[in-house]
Write a structure and sequence with these properties.
With 62 residues, this protein is of the alpha+beta class. The protein has three helices and three strands, in the order βααββα.
């Protein structure tokens, strides 16, 4: 698609650095279903769309 911008996908470690929390915290949030929306590229490769992380952060900060 011409002009479409691909969303940036982040690893758990990148999300942790962005939010200044430990990677285990991101994992805990994912397991509890309370963190940002996750996309699984394979059973062991979770990825987070940057826009989903930002949207989640706005929601929890409100």
């Amino acid at each position: 698609m011409v002009g479409a911008v691909m969303n940036e996908y982040m690893t758990s470690a990148e999300v942790a650095r962005l939010l200044r929390v430990d990677k285990s915290t991101v994992c805990r949030w994912r397991q509890a279903g309370t963190g940002p929306r996750v996309t699984w590229l394979s059973p062991s490769l979770p990825r987070y769309a940057r826009r989903d992380v930002e949207e989640w952060l706005r929601g929890v900060a409100a």
